[in-house]
Every structure is written in structure tokens, then in C-alpha cells.
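User: Can you predict the 3D structure for this chain?
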Amino acid sequence: MQEPQSGPDRRMFLRATAVTGAALTLGGLSAQTASAAPGGFPDYTYVRTLLTPSQLKYNPTGEIIFPTVRGVYDKLASPLGRYYLYYAPHDAPGGICLAYGNSLEGPFTEYPANPIVSNKWSPHYSVSHVSSPHVLWKEDVKEFWLYFHGENTTTRLARSEDGVHFTYDKVVLSTSMMPSGTTETSYARVFRHELPSRRAHYVMLFMLNNTTNHRDICWGWSADGRNWTFDQTPLVRHSDVGAVNVGGPHLLTRNGSAYVVYNKDKESGGDLMITEVGADFSLRRHLGVFYNSRSGPPENGRSAAPSFGTDHGVPYMIFEAGERLQGSIAVARG
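Assistant: Here is the predicted structure, written as C-alpha cells:
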């Protein structure tokens, strides 16, 4: 599984043929009807709901958020399935959960011993909740690195060889590392991304809240994924895109540039937005709506916290669908 990257894809081909007026059809789709999201990314279309809280054995709060999907078929000798899908309830007690399946379109089977990480992990912490799992495959050490928050002030790291059983590592981000008045540093995702000028190989995107109670997207960089330096000013401010709050950021790259996809709160439209930040994160080009949330179920006007992957050459987006703390996990196809 890979994130959408640069290079030709079906939709780019269709757009090109539409421009030339060619009456070509690919897979039954007319060239004249094709479109693409900003930045040349696929235009994702909802396919189905993958996980619904009421159908899960571990369901302490009736809500789940923040999916992360990882292909494990090329990393593990005997995986539970080709893909591991991590998610969590947010409200106390939360709990990092796992589901597995053989296709990004599902079905996914709930791991029977969820949660795989709980809100109490002696002697490391005891908090009201843990949530927002993001899993990175650390190629150099052949490990799955899990970043998660609990409380909302603290992002932690745990490590695993099999993607199921984790060993606690350390705190990697807290409000104390950001400007005075910061009240939340959470919903972090970490990506391999080269920043030669900073001698960094990884970037972290996360949501920051402060005493103004408006949430922005911030970022940091690291040589090893464990020890971080954080920019003290937001990468994307809520006011930059006419929102009350922005969050759930994900990094995508294409044609030598980097982009951040993130969600607006429902009061600000509930759509997924995209901003080009450039390969070195010096650019701020707000490109508008990346994914338009449908008014009907399961989205009900809100999509959030996207995770991306490719299955047999087809791009997919797995995301929160529905009102905050009332939604499910859904999949869209590009």
C-alpha cells in the first residue's frame, strides 16, 4: 500500500483526453465526465461504511474516530490480513483499536482483544483517554511506530514488530513544547519526508488549540521520528481558510511538492480542504475543497481525519464520516 504520489493516473489521463476532445473511454467512464481534486489528486467518491460503532464488540462510548490504514502484507510473514486499520473512540476511556481485512474496500474484521493500547499503561501513564492512532512503518528498524494522544495535551510513541503488540517508548509532543497559552497538541500524524536544510527525514502534522479556542494545524521535523523540533507558528491557521477550527491533517506529495489535507469543522462547512506547502514547507497556497462532504448519511455534512492508500493501483481514502463523536469510518475511491 502506498499513498497517492506523483505520476500519471486514470483521472489525469481522462482530463488530458477531454481537453483534446478525444472521445476515449476508460473502464466505461467517458473522458468528458472526468474531474480531479485540486493539485491533480484523484476526485474521491464515497463507496461504503467500513466500521460502525454499534456493530463493534469494543464500543465503550458509541463513537470512533481517526482511522489510519497500513498495508502489512509485504512487512509481516503471517499477518491477520493484507491491511491493518487503526482507529479509536475519543471520549473516555478511548482505546487504540485494530481491524484487519484483505481489501481497502472492506470488509474489515474487528481484532477480538481490542483495545490494543488502553488509557492506563503502568508505569508510563494513567489518563482519562487515549485516541487518534497514527501508525508509521519505520523501514530502517522494521517496526510499526504508533503515535497517539492522551490527554489532549500529550502525544506519545509506542513501537511494535507485528503491528498488534506495542512497547511504550516516550512522549514526543506536549503543550509545553509550544507557545504559552497552548491548551491542546493532539491528532498527530507522522510521515517520511526529506527536509535536507533541516537535516530531517520525518515531519509531524498536528492540531493545536490555545486560549482563543480556535484550532490550527502546526508542524515539526525530526531526523529519527523520536526527537522533534516544532515550528512555533501555525502551518495552516483557521482564519486562513475561513474556518472556526481546522484539524485532522494528512500529508500528500505529488510532482515534487507537498500538500496538507485537513478538515474544517461542521460550522465552517465540514469539508476536507487542501493547502500546498511545497517540498520544503515554505509555501502556503490554499487550494480549496479537496473532498466535498455529502449532506446525506453517513457523512451528514462532515468528513474528517483522512488516511490514504492504494490497493492494486486504485487510490482510496479512509476517513471519519458524520458529525463529531457520532460518526463511523468510511471509504472513498479515487
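Residues 160 and 166 are 5 Å apart (CA to CA). The chain has one domain: 42-333.
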